[in-house]
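2.7 Reproducibility. Because tokenized structures are sensitive to small changes in the input, we list the exact sequence used for Elongation factor G, mitochondrial, including any N-terminal residues retained from the expression construct. No trimming or masking was applied before prediction.
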Amino acid sequence: MPRFPPSPSPNLLQRLFSSSSNKRSSSSPTAALLSGDFHLRRFSSGNAARAAKGEKEPWWKESMNKVRNIGISAHIDSGKTTLTERVLFYTGRIHEIHEVRGRDGVGAKMDSMDLEREKGITIQSAATYCTWKDYKVNIIDTPGHVDFTIEVERALRVLDGAILVLCSVGGVQSQSITVDRQMRRYEVPRVAFINKLDRMGADPWKVLSQARAKLRHHSAAVQMPIGLEENFKGLIDLVHVKALFFHGSSGENVVAGDIPADMEELVAEKRRELIETVSEVDDVLAEKFLNDEPVTAAELEEAIRRATIAQKFVPVFMGSAFKNKGVQPLLDGVVSYLPCPTEVNNYALDQDNEEAKVTLTGSPDGPLVALAFKLEEGRFGQLTYLRIYEGVIKKGDFIINVNTKKRIKVPRLVRMHSNDMEDIQEAHAGEIVAVFGIDCASGHTFTDGSVKYTMTSMSVPEPVMSLAVQPVSKDSGGQFSKALQRFQKEDPTFRVGLDPDSNQTIISGMGELHLDIYVERMRREYKVDATVGKPRVNFRETITQRAEFDYLHKKQSGGAGQYGRVTGYVEPLSSDSKEKFEFENMIVGQAIPSGFIPAIEKGFKEAANSGSLIGHPVENIRIVLTDGASHAVDSSELAFKMAAIYAFRLCYTAAKPVILEPVMLVELKVPTEFQGTVAGDLNKRKGIIVGNDQEGDDSVIQAHGKGEFTMEYKEHSAVSNDVQTQLVNAHNATKPTD
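Resulting structure tokens (single pass, no recycling of outputs):
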């Protein structure tokens, strides 16, 4: 329901919808208010061309223009979920505001898990939808902790735009850099929101400067605050040149007023800076700026929109979600500056045409193309989240899983509001919905069968930490296995394996918190208490030089024997290689029948799963098969697979293997007087300091190494010789003796 009662003052309306620089000649401000048309929209130059030719717009064009699919992402504790809670309140989606940590026993709507409310963090991304001034906005609230980065990854994969939330005190932090990199990877246009202007030490201009330097954003403020910290009273809209104040118990009444006299000069300076920054990436605005012509609010708004959608500019909004200030203008910015589904280029791969790239129109008139990007185990079975890129999906329809080639009926179609569901009969291109009863994996593509398209997959980082777990009670083994299978299906970064030496179940993930959450969920959701071993670092092994192999596997024990000979070499892959294992058959002729080559590759892959140094997987390795021999009777797939395994083990030592350890990017913020002590401690712990910035009275140290502060996975790199010796000795000591 609307939360903007009409103002009783006609003068206020005039001030709200006009400015000294905006010369509108069309409809009156009152008419604009009554119609709800608060923003001048220019979706594409094609619209004007069609109007000139008298062409009729497609039936879906207007509704698609008024759809926004956005994500809210940030560093941990920057206020993402608090912001989403306010968005839902001001759009009438919820009728009470609840705080993140659930102190009132309720908690934020988007944090539906008990663990999320207890810990005050977002663990799973949550989807919802709302309406703002006739625009339908689909929102995904994502976690900020690096351990749950896959949730951000798969959300951004399917979204058209994003809000990057930055803390006005903490500024651009390590996970801010990570989520911004993810946005770049999926080419997601974004607006920035500098939050917590009410906090002590708030400095939005410092944060804007950091965004330009650390994130390489071409950005400028579209708002500026009236006061900061406890004196934060409101905002000044630099586009329309007006002051905004937020009245009412929850800031629901946005009141426009005059700009304070002592700020007029600064406002003029900041507005000129905004126009200049946008004109650097927009030719239309540049012409007016260079000619020193006045720029109206409508012209500036259109230029910001063009530059934002082209990912050449990031408009910066400001406010305090917790103090209920600045959220409604941010929503205006979402509908004004972020793209609708048809303004974003999405591509599929045509499986009938050698995976040729196909541009999707985003039209509901086209064939159905939908991507499953997230799975959850719900009360009624598996819940699959779908982003529909083209076409229409209806309850009861038959759809095709292109990856598995299975034909499936859609038994139930819902629209999500956190953990609540609303049943719907159909959904069209541009929407995010969920379906029950569909067996699939994350990343699978669905069509109506008329095309055979698949969407490109998302990037999944490798786990960096492992734990040994086992159920306390033997009777709970079934529930234990069921829980692990479900968690693996839901989360691509959560892996389960079996230690061949100890026969223990090993779970791997993105960090201690990530794994602790799953152990706790196992206890709460499946009533399985588990004992947890010490954290085990996910080391890797690799080789540093080329080594030859020539191995004959020959076994005779009556009847058909085993015979297979393989010859070739192993060598390290280049550091910039995207593949971690390569196998190449360079045999000329039929020394080994082609039917046995897959078995040889399988043998080498199996051998590379466990290096001889400490038993960890071997990566960045290329294996080349150059020759071999076979026997007409005794050769078999098993014989050649065993030959490959033993050949790998024999040549591995000659290839001078080394151990790789995961390297993390660590950021620590400490008072300047402790800078030397902390840097020294980092060096003792084999951390490598790569940067040191000054923020007021604090020093911000960036380093490579292991840490428990704000950090993200970077890469695996070789350990020192003494560490390698220790690890090998420890591994050998745990091996069972004959």
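The longest helix spans residues 264-279.
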